[in-house]
Write a structure and sequence with these properties.
The longest helix is centred in the middle third of the chain and has 16 residues. The two termini are 29 Å apart. Strands 6-7-8-3-9-10 form a six-stranded mixed β-sheet, with helices on both faces. The chain has 20 helices and 22 strands. It has 505 residues and is an alpha/beta fold.
Length: 505
Amino acid sequence: MTTSQVGPVLKVHGLTKRYPGVTALDGVDLEVHAGQVLSLSGANGAGKSTLVKILSGAEQPDAGSIWIDGREVQLESPHAARQAGIYTIYQEMSLVPSMSVVENIFLDDFAKSGLVRIGRLEKRAEQLMERLGAPVDVRAPVASLPLAKQQLVEIAKALKSEPHVLLLDEPTTTLPPRDVSGLLNLMRDLAASGVGLIFVSHRLDEVTAVCDAVDVLRDGRRVAHFDTVPDAHAIVRQMVGDRYENSLAAAAAEGSEGKLGGVATSDVVLEVRDLTEGHRLHPCSFELRRGEVLGITGLLGAGQNELAECLFGLREPSGGTVAVEGRQVRVRSPRAAIRRGLGLIPEDRKSQGLVLDMSASKNMSLASLGMFTRAGLLDHSRESRHARTKVDELGIKCSSVHQSVRTMSGGNQQKVLLARWLTKNSKVLILAEPTRGVDVAAKEEIYRLIRAYLRSGGAAVLVTSEVAEAALCDRVLVLSNGRIVAEATHEEIQSQQQDLLTHLR
């Protein structure tokens, strides 16, 4: 990758954005050159998402200027941003599930005129998807595709416009490792063709692998710029300062670095026997003991999410049994699962776990409303007091417990979900990708909270696509095509991690 020696294709000067009670961006400067991949790094809440929204035209700044190819522009809408040559790939996809792949990619063309050459567009859509290494039936509805391929359809939408600047906000979050490398290679190809890219990722190995330069935001300010990419530790130090060091020190003081569990007893709290779900999940059996964390891992679509959904009543199994503390139960709905002492932090916290327009306090109490009612009426004062206690215990960063969770960072949203199940005193927590989309310091804080939950007598099933995270568990089950194909203890994973990786290819 080579950076153009002429002026920047995108220049931001003094960008400022204020919301009630908080300054999200405070005089930020930024430059991206044609042929350059710039990493925009920062902890959750540093201002990255606000900057991306402004550059995509979704938000308007209070001060500052934006220049494209040496010309100042006003990005008054997403359409204006795209017209200026800036296209954004968000974490949350903007696809229409019921429409076909080709209709989603060329939605603007269909909107302009009812007269289009569908055959020509289908061929172009096929070329774009093949370029992304994901050939699909472009006439199939997007909803029929796995999540990873849906993400690639989103990227194809951007590529068909041949953008001058491409903003990628956590584009690898839902992709398995084999597809991540393909996307990083594609980013290199785009840079080589002269596109300027801004890459937002909490995965610093991706940053060091693909980026040419790094800008670091902290508390709304640009605190560091690296003309060449330094090692990950230098980036982390600028991102979060003492927070990261303190989190690691706390883990070391607990003697828990490198492991989440380690406090398992002989009490079996969850017993699963021959659980099946149609053709997606074949007979799966395992036990979970109090104080233990059991990892479930596998490639995307291997059956781990179906297993988690069956345990929590989001899917009805076609066979097998589930017992909680020795008592066989039929979990036909989330309500039934909650009554039996199960809690779920879903893979997509925003669409499946949180009510985004409700406050942190309301989200925490959703599963435990009986604790806060008197004579059938909700005691708002008691609810708020309890929420403030959880905010302090879990280190949740918010302006107040009445703040909408929509406006909170990803790490703090995840902590609100944890607070919900800690409030309910759940016996078993099912954690699906619990650290996806959070920064390194927030990840360590979430691990600390999981450890505290396990020490208090809880037990956890941790569904993760990251081998490094699975390696923190007491035991790990590897799924492939809906079947358990391998099992390893924590010690075996540490000594034979390469053997585990072979099952994930």
